[in-house]
């Protein structure tokens, strides 16, 4: 059963392009991780609202990644991000995919 | 640019299976809509937290669907849903996909 992990960020006014640039230049090491499927960076309609949105093959695959070396490497730079870029704490949410419906081809 | 639309539901305690059954038995008419890519029903880790999660080819494709007959047909049954099933109003959010990273194959 697929699993979706979202981290919601509230970026401070005027710091949006800096935030986007951090994501564009990061090394995520995700693309070779077992059970990783696809990552999206989303920008909401509300000002400063962003979501890092990752689809995993299963909850187990996500949890295995959390405890792995690629995870630690990918997050090493996070400590260097200036705190003033955010207007509040990030909020992590995890979701089980109950139903899926695809475009007919 | 892909576009993701999420509708967040807070389901009342004890009504979760009824809510899931409504989704399983609905006729969405989505799978033949231009620009529709994939629909997921998500269940969060917090009790009663659900998201209807739809990926579109573009914002324009989503907006065209909103004004179309398949949308009206798909939502005709919504009025029949007992209000007591929810613990609060649904919250619709729309997101532009800024970055995508896929699993290496």
Please explain how this structure is put together:
The structure is a homodimer of 105-residue chains. Chain A is of the alpha+beta class. Chain A has one domain (3-96): Alpha-Beta Plaits. Helix content of chain A is 23%, strand content 35%. Chain A contains three helices and four strands. Chain A has helices at 16-24, 59-66, 69-75; strands spanning 3-10, 36-44, 49-56, 91-102. In chain A, strands 2-3-1-4 form a four-stranded antiparallel sheet. In chain A, strand 2 (36-44) and strand 3 (49-56) form a beta hairpin. The longest helix of chain A has 9 residues, at 16-24. The A-B interface holds A 2, 4, 20, 23-24, 28, 30-32, 36-46, 49, 51, 53, 93-104 and B 2, 4, 20, 23-24, 28, 30-32, 36-46, 49, 51, 53, 93-104.
The residue-averaged pLDDT of chain A reads 92
Report the biggest beta sheet of chain A as strand number plus sense, adding barrel if it closes.
Answer: 4 strands, antiparallel
Beta-strand percentage range of chain A: 35-45%
Percent of residues in helices of chain A comes to: 10-25%
Instruction: Give the CATH level 1 class of chain A.
Output: Alpha Beta
The total count of helices of chain A amounts to 3
Structural class of chain A: alpha+beta
Q: Report the count of strand segments of chain A.
A: 4
Oligomer: homodimer
Biggest sheet, spatial arrangement of strands of chain A: 2-3-1-4
Summarize, please.
With 105 residues, chain A is of the alpha+beta class.
Q: Topology of this structure?
A:
The structure is a homodimer of 105-residue chains.
Chain A: E1 3-10, H1 16-24, E2 36-44, E3 49-56, H2 59-66, H3 69-75, E4 91-102
Antiparallel strand pairs in A: 1-3, 1-4, 2-3
């Amino acid at each position: 059963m697929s699993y979706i992990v979202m981290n919601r960020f509230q970026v401070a006014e005027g710091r949006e392009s800096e935030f986007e640039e951090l994501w564009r230049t990061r090394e995520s090491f995700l693309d070779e991780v077992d059970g990783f499927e696809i990552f999206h960076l989303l920008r909401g309609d509300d000002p400063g609202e962003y979501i890092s949105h990752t689809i995993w093959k299963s909850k187990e695959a996500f949890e295995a990644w959390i405890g792995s070396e690629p995870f630690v490497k990918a997050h090493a730079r996070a400590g260097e991000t200036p705190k003033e870029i955010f207007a509040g704490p990030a909020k992590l949410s995890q979701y089980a995919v109950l139903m899926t419906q695809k475009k007919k081809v």
